[in-house]
Amino acid sequence: MSRSLLLCAAALITALPALAAPLDDEPIQPIPVSRVSDPGMVELGKKLFFDPRLSRSGLLSCNSCHNLAAGGSDNLTSSIGHRWQKGPINAPTVLNSSLHLAQFWDGRAPDLKTQAGGPIANPAEMASSHAQVVTVLSSIPAYVTEFKTVFGTDAIEIEQVTRSIAAFEETLVTPDSRFDRWLKGDAKALTETERAGYQLFKDSGCVACHNGPAVGGNSFQKMGVVEPYSTRNPSVGRMAVTGDPDDRMVFKVPSLRNVELTAPYFHDGAAATLTQAVETMGRVQLGLTFTPEEKARIVAFLKTLTGRPLALRLPALPPSSDTTPRPRPFEE
Amino acid sequence: MSRSLLLCAAALITALPALAAPLDDEPIQPIPVSRVSDPGMVELGKKLFFDPRLSRSGLLSCNSCHNLAAGGSDNLTSSIGHRWQKGPINAPTVLNSSLHLAQFWDGRAPDLKTQAGGPIANPAEMASSHAQVVTVLSSIPAYVTEFKTVFGTDAIEIEQVTRSIAAFEETLVTPDSRFDRWLKGDAKALTETERAGYQLFKDSGCVACHNGPAVGGNSFQKMGVVEPYSTRNPSVGRMAVTGDPDDRMVFKVPSLRNVELTAPYFHDGAAATLTQAVETMGRVQLGLTFTPEEKARIVAFLKTLTGRPLALRLPALPPSSDTTPRPRPFEE
After folding, report:
1. How large is the ipTM?
2. Cβ contact (<8 Å) for B68 and A263?
3. What's the pTM value of the predicted model, to 2 decimals?
4. B329: buried, middle or exposed (CB in 10 Å: 19+, 13-18, 0-12)?
């Protein structure tokens, strides 16, 4: 090895951050990098995710409410659906949603595939139907070819549509946040304030619900444990699924990954800022009144949970054919 | 040079298409590749183009009606604006729009920068105001930093916003269509039918208006030269700009680049398919009745004008701060 190469190698080693051992006993774990098992299905699912022809109007796509340029949500209190209808609940981010135990705030969909079929056919959201989506896609030659390549069948089925969208969504994980780098042993990845915020987050009991790789998303919990949560939003939560009155106001604990990007917060979108969200959570879930300094510390920690941006390439949607049913944005 | 390398080189030469000399005397020229003069401004403009916070509702961005995944338009007869208002005219594609002599169907904006300010403040489109957009962007720390890096000033100005969007849009050119490869001398880039379609396109007189690198976009012409164009769309065209009654129903000739992707056609979006558009144009502009075979031939040629897809990376929009004014989608 030449002397200059040796010098390079030495410089490289010096430049690496001082890595301690990974922190294995923390209640939060780093996000695993997503593994793409079927790149063709993921690419097809990406097209479908961005395709407004899945809606009756031709305006709304999955990406309208789960905007991948904006943290995978729409940053609205509740979403805007077909003909500007006001949605019933705050749109959760699609980022890292594959790590959740179930989908929707009330967990009524067991997986992403089932979830994907919901908004397409919801008259207040994309307002199409599964049959109509199959008709539209089957009229677009490039889609027919792509579905055949991925699934090996001649006829497009809605189950293939939702499976492809889910396969794409499974790739939407955001590893490499500063917090994850710290968990992996890079002591300098967090500031002192951020570390203090994490300590307070643990000591106050937030981690009881917000834990695991997604910092949430892995349990259902009552909104308003210590003090009833006051809201004008009519959602009853998990009771709608189980029928059990004890499940009233029980919701899936949202993931706090990328929470800096996904305001406003809670199922009703009532907390406009992270500071408000921390204050309300402390009060109604834990019976705590955080000081302004404590809130600032926790918020500083929460902002370290923003992962590496997705760096997605916008798909090129295949053109409609002469037989493709046209969008109907202004008809009832 | 080794024998195997020589063989490789020989194979490479054989694999290249047989290039004749470029066709220099054609009425259509290849699209020049865009030159990015200020990458920082282009990147900022891309963020702004995709940012729904430029609208009052927080739902609509430039990309809502000029969808870069779908040929730079929305494939709707007329666009959907704030509170689902029906737009007055078909949204033209933003692709290759920098090659146009002016912007909007009636050419009322001399350039892309002027155009970009329009929809933002139009109550029927994005329904914000220039002052509000500046307030919103100035409340987002990462934008303040980025504007300062690009423009060297502390305060964000609307002129910087529109200039950045225009700089991004100038990069949205789509070279390398099959037709351009043919123009450059690759005789095999077009089929016999497509070449026959181009010949008919020229012989029929379509090139009188659809010429130049954008195959249009470089003149204003009357819609309905030979026969009045019948439409329910109330637009008067260029008369709205000049006040001259002779300019009634005079519109900018649209570019035919990527026309396969931008249905429906005409300022009123009345032609749902390329075949219909060719039929109508032949009749009202040229006094010709094309046979079905002739229409198919011209349509085959038009589909060779689809350029290389953009391959854009979706931007990561910076998060709002606690002081960012919130979207107001459901207020009057």
Report:
1. 0.93
2. no
3. 0.93
4. buried
